[in-house]
Structure formats: C-alpha cells, structure tokens
Amino acid sequence: SRLMNIIKIEEARQIDPVNESAFKDQISMNPQGLKLEEIQSLLREDQGLLSYYWGEESAYCLQIWRDHVALIPIYVHHVKRKRVNDQVNSLLEILRTPRLDEQTLRNFHEASSYVAKQLLPDPDTTTHIKEWIILPDGPLVNMPFEILLTGDEPLPDQIDPSIIPDLWRDLPYLLHKFD
Known about the structure:
Largest sheet: 4 strands, mixed
Radius of gyration: 18 Å
Number of helices: 8
Order of helices and strands: HHHHEEEHHEHH
Number of strands: 4
Strand order of the largest sheet: 3-2-1-4
C-alpha cells in the first residue's frame, strides 16, 4: 500500500529513537513496508500519524494511533475539491508573499482555519495526542502544518493597524498546541 511505502527510517526517529534499530530490521526484512498493527505498536500512546492521499478526484487522510484507525475523506465531490484546493493555494500564496496588512491577516485567518478543519482530526477525539507525525501528499507537501489555526475565535471587526503584528503573534497556531 502507498502508506507502507512512504514510511521510512526517518519517521522511525520521530516515532521512537529507541526502537529505530528494530524499525530498520523490519524494513530490511519486509521491503513492502509495515503492517498496520506494527505501525500502531511503534507509536507511543500520545502520538498520532496522519497520512494524506491527495488525488485529482478525491483526497483522504489515514489517521492512525495506538487504538484507532480511520480513513477520512477530505473531498470526494468536485465542488468541495475546488474549495479545499483554493484555500490551500491561498494559504501557500500568503506564505510566499507575507505582508502585515489587515487584509492579508484576514485572508490567512480564513484560509488557515478552513484548511485546519478539513485536514486535522476532531480535537475533541484526540485530546490524548500530543505529537503528530504528518505524511503529506500533493500541495500539502509544501504547507507547514504548524501554522494551521486550531481555534474558532474570529478576528475583531475593526482592527487598529498598530496591533496587527500582535494579532499575528497571538493566533492559535497548531504549533502551540502540539509537538
């Protein structure tokens, strides 16, 4: 399977440096990759793995942690595909040409919040997860997941330009919530 071919020794270091040699042995004995149960056994109780498939017609996230496996559709309909792709592209464009003006902040807030809701597991079901191992695909390869927003707090209707840098700093980035 595609996930089994993606996982390499580098991810083993993130999963558990102590088990790295066992992981290398597994890879050398089984070049096809690891079985799902083996991946789950390598994850600590507070770790989760998110592996994305980003296709032309559909996108999915394979969520794996010690006691959970789910294949979650991100989009399977062309209308939602366009919206998700547009928001990912908007977010990437904002990161390529950063500015500290109000409109850029609002565009970033909208795109980052939307993308986070589409790509990340429900925070209420993952309270025990403190560290995510993310295997991106497609345009997600270029996206730093750390900058996705985890809160639902809207920006103020009126923004004093002098506080825009503070608003950028204080956004609820994923980086502040997880390792």
